[in-house]
Amino acid sequence: MSTPNETSANQQWGGRFAEGPSAIMQAINASIGFDAKMWRQDIRGSLAHAAMLAHVGILTPEEEAAIRRGLGEIAAEIEAGRFAWSEALEDVHMNIEARLTERIGEAGKRLHTARSRNDQVATDFRLWVRDAMDGLAAQQLDLIRAFVARAEEHAATIMPGYTHLQPAQPTTFGHHLLAYAEMLWRDRGRMLDARARLNECPLGAAAMCGTGFPIDRHMTARALGFDRPTANSLDSVGSRDFALEFLAACAICATHLSRLAEEIVIWTNPAFGFVTLPDNLTTGSSIMPQKRNPDAAELVRGKTGRITGALVALLTVVKGLAMTYAKDLQEDKEGVFDAAESLALCLAATAAMVRAMRPDAARMRAAAGAGFSTATDLADWLVRELRLPFRDAHHVTGRLVARAEALGVDLAGLPLAEMRAVEPRITEAVFGVLTPEASVASRRSHGGTAPENVRAACAAWKERLA
Ligand code: ARG
């Protein structure tokens, strides 16, 4: 990065200025430190713009060819790490344009005809976010595949189901993982919905009101893979809801990953011992030799904070802005870049953990049988076999649980005589519904936890993902 030059006026806009910006002005104004990340999008946008300008006769074919060649050479320079980014040139747009003029002369100075940095940055940023959406949507799909594969393997692996993190009803590990597949599928849907709304091209809105030049906005939109040009020039340069929607989709997805991360932290705690992670996905402690820490899960949970933070930050940046562009909007990028990169890392780490985690079926089965987890099955039996109203059955079962608790046994261990003391019509047959296996097998309602449902759901997923 070159050093600030406080005396000479900016070569891109300094015509009416007698002197250049102070060091502090330059420091607060420059975005090159982070927006250089969009150099590919900026060059792509400029190539499309130049081709359109030539098409409508604003540039000569020779000028357009020179611009195309120059931008190609600049791309190679940047790729090779040979490009000297300058803070005095503020941002990626002016750095590349200035270098273009340096390389090809006069024609470079014509590139900015009928365009402004306002529509240019809006275009570059949409292109960048669109690429990020595509990458993240593909990773979401990969994670769903991992859930489905493990769910198929563990369709009948019994584990305790919780509400309030208290033992509630037995479920299966497969059913549990497929719950996350559903959540991730909606996350991907949100990403793609946002992509569809993002996919309009602001290029040609110019500073804010459009231009008097006979440009063809449909041509540039098409060249850049947009569905159409944006309809209103003010909205084009002044709106960032495409980035807000992207961040909201990221934050919701990260929140889902964070919940699974929290469960992995719980499951890997030796007091639970439901799951182990391999050495290569855990870390040790520098002081406590016995430790095996689920840092990857903790960091997925932790990074969710910064992703949600990026959403809140940008909402806050935009909320007070009068139409149209204000420099506040330069603050839109870092949070988006960081959120996209953080979520990509979280999705990759989660997929790795899901693929590698080793459930301990015996421990999960033992926990699933504890805590009177089949009490609902007992109440349902009273309803089905004795025609008790559910409310009464709930009450009777509550008394049986209290009795079992007092005797220090689980429901299956409660003698029939004890049960009959509470409800004389109970028969031996009740014991058939009190095991976790019977409990999960019985739950065949649509979306229920029965192993046969989980297997059918896995088959449906595989068809959907094929
Ligand atoms: N670096 C600026 C941004 O990111 C580009 C747009 C500058 N526009 C302006 N009118 N100064 O927002």
Describe the structure.
By secondary structure, the protein is mostly helical. The protein contains 19 helices and six strands. The strands form three sheets. The protein has a two-stranded antiparallel ribbon with strand order 1-2. The protein has a two-stranded parallel ribbon with strand order 3-4. A two-stranded antiparallel ribbon has the order 5-6. Helix 3 (39-55) packs across helix 9, helix 4 (61-79) packs across helix 5 and helix 7 packs antiparallel against helix 8 (173-198). 42% of the residues are buried. Residues 2-6 have low confidence and may be disordered.
Structural descriptors:
61% helix; binds arginine; mainly alpha; 19 helices; two-stranded parallel ribbon
Task: Give a brief outline of the structure.
The protein is built from 19 helices and six strands. It is mainly α.
Beta strands, count: 6
Weakly predicted, low-confidence segments: 2-6
Query: What portion of the residues fall into strands of 2 or more residues?
Result: under 5%
Bound ions, cofactors and other small molecules, one mention each: arginine
**Overall geometric form:** elongated
Give the termini distance in whole angstroms: 48 Å
Number of continuous helical runs: 19
Structural class: mainly alpha
Overall mean pLDDT: 96
Order of helices and strands: HHHHHHHEEHEHEHHEHHEHHHHHH
C-alpha-based Rg, rounded: 31 Å
Main sheet summary: 2 strands, antiparallel
Helix content: 55-70%
Order of strands across the biggest sheet? 1-2
